[in-house]
C-alpha cells in the first residue's frame, strides 16, 4: 500500500489540477464570450444608430463597462464559492478507519491545496488585469461606493474628470465629493431606495461638480453589486461629455447667431420678436420693425474686396448697436441687411426719433483701407398692430417699405402702408405675366421717327418696345420696364429688342427703305451684362448691318456709373461710326464736365423741359443752355416731346437739330412704319398719325 501512496498523491494532484483547469477554462470562455457579445452589440448599435446620434454613444459605452464589471464580480464570487466545496468534501471523505481512505483523502487534500493556490494566483492576476483595464479607459470614470456611499474605488479617469486623487477620495461621501448642493438630497434618497426597495437609479446625463467647483457634464450609469447582502456596493460609470457639450454649444451658437457680426440671425430674431408681440398685445403697446439695407454695398465689396466688405459690415453692426435701447432687438438677415425691433412704444410716431438715430449713424464716414468711405442705407418701417399681427408679417412689410425707399433715393426711410403692399403684389403678378409674354411673343417693337426741325425730313427711328397681352389691353412701358429691371427680365427683353431691331432694319434695307438709322435704348442693367455689346455686334453681323445702321441711347446716369471697360467699348463703337445719344438730358446728375469725357454724338433734351419752356422762363433758359453747350461741343441736339406748334416754334428758334414727338409722329408698328417710309416722296410733308 505504501508503494502506491506517491502515485495516489500524484494522481490526486493531477486530477485536481485538471478539474480546476477545466473550471477556469470554462469561466474564461464564458467571460470571453460575454465580452465578444458586448463588443458585437456595441458595434451593431453604432451601425444601426449612425454616426449622427452621438448622444447614444456614452450610454452604450457606460452600459458595456457596467456589465463587464458586474460579470467580473459575479464570476469572482462564484469561483470563490466553488473553491470552498472541494475542501468540505475532502473533510467528509477523510475516514481514519480506512488506510486507503486516509491516503485517498490525503491525495485529494494535497490536490485541492495546489488547486487553491493556483486559483488564488490566477485570481490575483485576473484582478490586476481588470484593474489595469479600468485604469486605461481615458474618458470613463469608474468609482465604487460602499453601502454608506463612501468611496472604495477611484480610477485614474475619475481623477482627471473630477480633480480628486485616489487618496483624497477614498473614504469620502459621494454627495460631498461630486454632487452639487441642489442634487444632494435627491442622490441620497435614490441610493436609499435602491438598497431598501430595489428601485434602480436610471442612467442619465448629469451635471456634477469637480474639486474646483466647476460643473462637469457626464453620462452616468450605476450598478449595484451584492444588492441583497449586508454590504451592497455601488459602482458608478461616468462618461465625460465635455467635448459633446462644447460641440452642442458651438452648434447652437452657429444656428442662432451670425458668425461675422455676432448678432442673432433671422430665426432667432423672429422667435424673440414674436415674444415681444405677445407682450405688446397684452399691454396694449406699439412695436416697430425697422429694416436696414446698405446702398450699393456690392460695389463697395467689389472695389475694396471681401475682407474690407466684412469689416464694413462689422462696423455697421457696431453702430447699430449704439442705436439700441435696453430691450431692443438687432439682427443681421443677409449680406448687407440688418433688422431692428423697437418694443414698448406708446404711440406709432414714437418710432420717428429712433429712425432718425439710425439714419444719423450713417452720417459719419467709415474708415476702410485707410480711407474714408461714405455709406448710406435705405430703411423700411412697419408697425404693430397697424401693419401686421405676427413676426413674419411685420418683417415682410418692413422689407417691402425698404424696397420702396431704395427706389426713391439713397438714405431714405419709408413707412409701410396697404397701398404699397397692393402695388408690390401687382408688380409681382406683372413680372409673372411678363415672363409668359416673352414665351408667347406678346412683345413688339414700335418706331418713332426723329425729323429735321427745319424741313420735317425723317432722319432716324427710335425703337420702342410695346406689350399687347392676348387678354386685356396694352400695358405701358412705364409700368412694365421697371418691373423687368427689378426681376432681371430686362436682360431677356433687351436681347430680344436688339435682335428684332436689327432684323427689321435689315428688312427695310432689303426693300430699299434703310436710309434712316434705328436707335436702340440700353439700360444700366443691360450694360452690366458682359455679353450685351457682344450680342449687339453678333446681331449686326448676322443681318449684314454696319455701325451706321444702328445707334444706341443711354441715360446720363448710366454713362456716369459705367465701368471703364464699358466706356472703352463705347469709344470703339464711336470711332467706327456708331451714333451714341444721351437720353433724357438734364434729368440726371446734370454735370456738364462728363460731356467732354464720354463718346457721345447727340443730346436728347428731356420732354419735361420742352413741355414747360414756352411758359416757364427757367425751363427755357435750361433748354437754351443745353442747346448752346451741345453745339459748341459738336453734338447733335434733339428735342423730345414736341406736341404742338408753340413748342415747335420754340425749338426751331433755339436751333435744335431734330424733333421727336406727337406733333409729327406717334410711335407706330413696323407695318405702319414700312408704309410710311414707302409713301414718303419728295420733300416728305409733315404727317401726324
UniProtKB/TrEMBL annotation:
**Record-linked CDD domains:** EAL (cd01948), GGDEF (cd01949), PAS (cd00130)
Residue stretches making up the EAL domain: 427-681
InterPro entries given in the database record: Biofilm_reg_signaling, EAL_dom, EAL_sf, GGDEF_dom, Nucleotide_cyclase, PAS, PAS-like_dom_sf, PAS_fold
Instruction: Spell out the SMART domains in the cross-references.
Output: EAL, GGDEF, PAS
Q: So where does this one cross the membrane?
A: 30-49
Q: Quick check: keyword S-adenosyl-L-methionine in the entry?
A: no
Q: What is this protein called?
A: PAS domain S-box-containing protein/diguanylate cyclase (GGDEF) domain-containing protein
- In which organism is this protein found? Franzmannia pantelleriensis
